[in-house]
Amino acid sequence: MPQYPVALVERHILDRAHRTLERVLARLESTAEVAGTLGAPELAAMVHALLDDVDAILRDHMAWEEQVCYPETDRLAATPWATQLLRLQHDQIRRLLDQLRTDDLGRAGSHQRAVSELRGQLYALHAILGSHLEQEERALLGLLVAEPAAPRADGLEEVEPRR
Ligand SMILES: [Fe+2]
Ligand SMILES: [Fe+2]
Questions:
Q1: 126 lies in a domain?
Q2: Range of 98's domain?
Q3: Cα(63)–Cα(30) distance, rounded to whole angstroms?
Q4: CA within 20 to 30 Å of 141's CA: 38, 79, 125, 132, which one?
Q5: Which of 18, 13, 3 is nearest to 144 (CA)?
Q6: In this structure, is residue 148 part of a structural domain?
């Protein structure tokens, strides 16, 4: 069985997760677009379902990046600063998610105003997350490539895995 370098496996996982997160981005945008056309209970149900899906995908992905992928990237870049900005963006994304979760559409004030605030938060999350994914792909995918294999003890060459 071929041995795939760790960095190459991480690159593949990252790439797949980001394709899924692109669908999340589209849902954030479409929810913001229709928000003004829905009543409070309908909109609250839609936002909660969206947040449940976002939480399930995004929080795990960010945790994996912080625990596995970013340390590997820092190691390959030979600096602990390679992923610093990306980590700060994760904090910002978590804060926005928490804020969306705790804001109550039915709280005091007009529905129109609550919808307007919600749309602002959804568009803000869409912008930050979209930009974060782009930056991550620029910063990480270039580094997460196969490192030159260490010479084998038996003198034979490793066969490159097929892509
Ligand atoms: Fe990330
Ligand atoms: Fe990511």
A1: no
A2: 6-105
A3: 26
A4: 125
A5: 13
A6: no
Cα(134)–Cα(26) distance, rounded to whole angstroms?
A: 15
Domain annotation covers residue 136: no
Q: How far is the CA of 133 from the centre of ligand 2 (A)?
A: 6
pLDDT tens sequence across 100-118: 988 766 565 688 888 999 9
14 C-alpha vs ligand 2 centroid, how far in Å? 6
Distance of alpha carbon 96 from alpha carbon 128, whole angstroms = 10
The answer to whether residue 101 sits within a structural domain is yes
Instruction: State in Å: Cα 98 to ligand 1 middle.
Output: 17
Q: Comparing 136 with 11, which gets the higher pLDDT? A: 136
Number of domain units in the chain:
1
Task: Quote the pLDDT of residue 146.
Answer: 54
84-104 per-position pLDDT tens digit: 999 999 999 999 999 998 876
**Segment 121-132, tens digit of pLDDT:** 999 999 999 999
